[in-house]
């Protein structure tokens, strides 16, 4: 199969991003978290290492959510009816998002603590 031109690759990539934004409630919530973090970054004037850390864990959650959505869509395509094995796959993928989210909250609490309570 021939690779599409670079501009088409970007088109398809952004098409996927906009699909996530339009159709996935959890991804929308994670985008809201990104917006809140961007506001806090500017409001508290975080140091460079703090900005990199906060954005890394925030985007990590968003990436994990996107991959979770891919796994769920593949599972639904392979087996549209309920199957316990598919359920385990989806649950574990969801757990990955939860783990990334817990890390993001912990990192955020550690970094923002001194700005909020000083």
Automatic annotation (TrEMBL):
Gene3D superfamilies linked? 1.10.287.3610
Q: Which cofactor does it need?
A: Mg(2+)
A GO molecular function assigned to this protein is:
kinase activity
Q: Give the residues the record marks as binding substrate.
A: 65
Q: Where does this protein reside within or beyond the cell? A: Cell membrane
The residues that cross the membrane are: 27-45, 51-71, 92-113
* Active-site residues, record numbering mapped to chain: 65
Query: What is this protein called in UniProt?
Result: Diacylglycerol kinase (ATP)
Q: Which organism is it from?
A: Soonwooa buanensis
């Amino acid at each position: 199969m021939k690779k599409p031109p670079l501009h088409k690759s970007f088109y398809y990539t952004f098409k996927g991003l906009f699909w996530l934004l339009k159709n996935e409630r959890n991804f929308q919530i994670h985008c809201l978290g990104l917006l809140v973090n961007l506001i806090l970054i500017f409001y508290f004037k975080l140091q460079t290492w703090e900005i990199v850390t906060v954005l890394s864990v925030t985007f990590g959650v968003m990436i994990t959510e996107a991959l979770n959505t891919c796994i769920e869509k593949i599972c639904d395509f392979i087996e549209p009816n309920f199957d316990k094995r598919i359920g385990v796959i989806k649950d574990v993928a969801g757990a990955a998002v939860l783990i990334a989210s817990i890390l993001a909250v912990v990192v955020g609490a550690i970094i923002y603590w001194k700005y909020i309570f000083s």
